[in-house]
Amino acid sequence: MPLKKGSSRKTLSKNVKTEMHAYEKSGKIGNSKPASKKKAQKQAVAIAYSKARESGAKLPKKSAAAKSKSHSTKSKSHKSSSKKKSK
Question: Where do the structural domains in the chain lie, given as residue ranges?
Fold first, then answer.
């Protein structure tokens, strides 16, 4: 069943439910195969938000905390690789 367009909480929740049902049946969400049910749920929420944004909803983008967290992990790995080169 295709996802519904709309930005209401009810539509978002139905879209998440649809995606999770598809995951439980086939083990896939879209083209990916999440390892755990929790990761599948997070992807289902992201897909539902994306669909809502397509239909014109004004939803928040990725939070600043999440952006800085992913950025800080990248910088740590970069620093460790530069230390190895200097030795």
Answer: 9-86
